[in-house]
Predict the structure.
Amino acid sequence: MTKIKKIAVFTSGGDAPGMNAAVRAVVRTASYHNLEAFGIYRGYEGMIDGRIKPIAARDVGNIIQRGGTILKTARSMRFKTPEGRKQAYENLKEAGIDALVAIGGDGTFTGAQVFSQEYNIPIVGLPGTIDNDIYGTDYTIGFDTAINTAIEAVDKIRDTADSHSRLFFVEVMGRHSGYIALHTGIGSGAGCIFLPEYDTPLDELVDVLKKANDRDKMFNMVIVAEGNRSGNAMEIANRLNEKYDGYESKVTILGHMQRGGAPSCRDRVLASRLGYHAIEVLLKGESNVALGIINDELCLTPFQEAISQAKKPKSSMLEMARILSM
Amino acid sequence: MTKIKKIAVFTSGGDAPGMNAAVRAVVRTASYHNLEAFGIYRGYEGMIDGRIKPIAARDVGNIIQRGGTILKTARSMRFKTPEGRKQAYENLKEAGIDALVAIGGDGTFTGAQVFSQEYNIPIVGLPGTIDNDIYGTDYTIGFDTAINTAIEAVDKIRDTADSHSRLFFVEVMGRHSGYIALHTGIGSGAGCIFLPEYDTPLDELVDVLKKANDRDKMFNMVIVAEGNRSGNAMEIANRLNEKYDGYESKVTILGHMQRGGAPSCRDRVLASRLGYHAIEVLLKGESNVALGIINDELCLTPFQEAISQAKKPKSSMLEMARILSM
Amino acid sequence: MTKIKKIAVFTSGGDAPGMNAAVRAVVRTASYHNLEAFGIYRGYEGMIDGRIKPIAARDVGNIIQRGGTILKTARSMRFKTPEGRKQAYENLKEAGIDALVAIGGDGTFTGAQVFSQEYNIPIVGLPGTIDNDIYGTDYTIGFDTAINTAIEAVDKIRDTADSHSRLFFVEVMGRHSGYIALHTGIGSGAGCIFLPEYDTPLDELVDVLKKANDRDKMFNMVIVAEGNRSGNAMEIANRLNEKYDGYESKVTILGHMQRGGAPSCRDRVLASRLGYHAIEVLLKGESNVALGIINDELCLTPFQEAISQAKKPKSSMLEMARILSM
Amino acid sequence: MTKIKKIAVFTSGGDAPGMNAAVRAVVRTASYHNLEAFGIYRGYEGMIDGRIKPIAARDVGNIIQRGGTILKTARSMRFKTPEGRKQAYENLKEAGIDALVAIGGDGTFTGAQVFSQEYNIPIVGLPGTIDNDIYGTDYTIGFDTAINTAIEAVDKIRDTADSHSRLFFVEVMGRHSGYIALHTGIGSGAGCIFLPEYDTPLDELVDVLKKANDRDKMFNMVIVAEGNRSGNAMEIANRLNEKYDGYESKVTILGHMQRGGAPSCRDRVLASRLGYHAIEVLLKGESNVALGIINDELCLTPFQEAISQAKKPKSSMLEMARILSM
């Protein structure tokens, strides 16, 4: 095994708060171990375009609290082709890169795994996505910040819902994953929560609304994950209005603010730990693994397993949410 | 003129952060002047339904920092009818109410003016709406909080826009008024701002985008007031995509979170001053006027004038915004 | 075993964000199981004074997002005496209370344990304190919010530290516990962190400052737990100034803001889960145990063990923090 | 008069949120007028050290939302000497600087005025300080953000004060100026506010506390400006405890977080307007003036007047605060 002297780090796929903290940890830990660190700008696209630049310990000062990613990100179609990956590898070789740290979600890990098998370059992955749906870690970098962003928005919506005694549908991110919706739903005391992983029939919502009405409860919040199978927030709201008169409802789609903002303390600590261990793990000769923290301990999961295994929120938490909202 | 002994306060129309602070100031100042204060719940609707209850100084403790309104609000169709207003007046008489403080927007003032002419009951109004479009005051209660809420959301969106080098359209509230859009636009360094009061041609946006491209500027924010005449955020985004290829744009509609949240310090101070002066002004025999703060001084504007006169943001500020974004 | 029909809940000791969410969960779950819920105001003091009142499901609506505790809290000297506890028990009997849920820290659990042994009344405890130092749970209710509050304050201090190139000492809460200091330190990229559990010599701080100077690093943050054995923030700053010239340092003590504020999403979810399980656990006949969540699973720890066992932050995290700050 | 082709901007004295937005506006407007912009790092100190670098429109992208100042700041003893100023002038001449924009407080304007009289170089000033005590403008850049930071901290302290029924003293910034204390006091419903400009006798505080006790009001907040003539928060708290038993009070000093943080929307708009007009005003041949916004209009005030005239909060607002807190 080649002794590692130069490592490169990049962020890929959707961005998530805490990615900068992870990049900082990777670069600072590399510096501590006397390695040269490089940043690849715009993920796999940048790797193909040769956008590889040295990044020193001092370049990552004062970024730990910043949302977004200083290395930018992009979705890359070209990296899905053997030609694209060949070009990427040649750029890495030319820069003398010995190992890679990839920060992103399942798509990033998929690319990393394929690349790692085609070319003999050690690569490890850090789970960076607000969706929290990556197997091999309790929490992904960005999730905690996203649920706090969502809960703060819902708190404000609650003020106006309460003033007007309205029914409010709030759609949160989560194309395939209901973690954000579940946590935001519990944290806002929502009467009903719609997740992609579980089918919540419309009648359940109607039932909740009726019970609330009986109790003279003035308003109600419904949280809907964007990827909910029976429809997004707007669709559910419309179906409710069609079927049952009398509900003056409003729909808010939180949108892309959930991806940004200063990372929460937990996201900074998680990102720091994972970035720190990434270097240590590479120096021990590991490759083709995703790092994660499970039960407060570092865990390594082969990319193949991280990609193919699923993780979903507990349905018992949904049950609890229902009881607590009445 | 009857000596005023019992006053009632209510909030009406759309809610705004700072309404609670205003209610608190009205009640506390009434108490200081040994008046009995009553709260009318759910605005004019509640006045018709007789939902009038005493409210003591201690009932308004600890609400100054809360968004929404403890008196709730509602839009009332019935108050637009003479029968509805007659019922309302009878309820007030039965409760012995001598004077009213109405907190809301133009709709609230319109109702107050009609009521005040039909029935001989002194009534003054405080400008409570996030839109800032009420004539007779530099700022309305709720505007400052709303622009801060909007700017915080846009800051988060900016993180992800910057990471992905995208074009982002953000729609803010303002059905007839561009104040929120203008301030949010300047405060976020937006490349283009669409207001209801001024026609911004699509070509101007295209021009901004071209110039940005020439400068290698990576992302761009466009702020659109919901009542923009040439279309809301989604419509403008679609027209842009149809006309010109190559813009990967996203649209976020901030929605109802702009109405809620803990009021900013300025909104608390403004609301406190207006609520405080409302009682003093009533005790001096004033009626049928809207209170406002202009140039840091209390101003009284007859409801008729407050309703009929318009106020709009300076177009010079739009010009400045354009220059600063390049 | 008496069938449980009436339960009472109270908060005791220092308050923590999320206590209201826990109270809400207890009351709503009790209601779901057709139990009558009572609130005891001002903790053990209130129990002795007989301040026990029914609390219905609707009384806890809209409190999940509020800091502080609607049941108030107090430190009670009288409860440490047999007479005090006797009076408390008589009040409970008179109200017909069958079981208790105590929310607080070690002091609360100590009182609960003694009480539970003296009188045959089932009582369980929920860990509510910002210090995170309670054994038997990964996180305590309030910790996550506190570290976010601290990190937001430190982010603001960082802006001014960076502008002026100064050395800043920030003191955070934690009389016996360094969790807040450690997480805030890592999350702010602090050059040095002083915890009560580990002795950090002053020379280490000097060393960090020298290295930073060599790198032309402009400013530095030092986080100090209030209970640090070698001195609090002011004391360390003074010793540094005495020993070594040239450090223009400022000291900020974050103080009591760390105890308040709207609970974070995680604190709301944690509090909800624990409050929910508290009722279930009582109905199963448990008593004299503290509830906690360990590895995402509910854990019951006898009060004796929860009180006598200690929990402290990993020293390896301190080591990592040092490396990442250079 | 020399045609202006190169302008330099710097920030000096205490930093304030919004300074970056002002720098951005100066640079972007200069660029629009085809002027070359330079940044002087570390204020007058940097001017003496020759730390003058070109700053392009693109260098100020993405800083509008950031607290602190990218140009850093410093207090300069050397600039108070003729030799220091001579060196500064020579550096400016060498760089070909034709005009200066100085952003800071009274100290900055004093230096600017002296410099402008000694050497024939046009210089204008923008009021940047959180204290809001600069004559010639309704609000200074940074004040609005600071009062929001203070009010958010006080809101959190209020949660714990309310839970424990305590008396809380909160000290805010304002060595000579009571604006922050007054606005924070009104916005938090404080029972008593201590400002540097007005003497509030201790007996008044005692009176407020007695009245509150009579009303069974559970807690009380007292806001103290650090420069209050009769003592800071700690001193007042101690005198109260000595003189009158029975008040369990806590003291929090908010400290330097008040200087930092992302600027509020109003501060960004104010800073943008002032920075924009600075260039326009220089191009019209103005010099030796401070810019300000009074009644929403641009105002120019000769440095001499801006420095010698004072501005202080209205005592009527203190009176109102007292009434509203009971």
Observations:
- Residues 131 and 174 of chain A are 6 Å apart (CA to CA).
- Chain A has two domains: 6-142+263-308, 145-259.
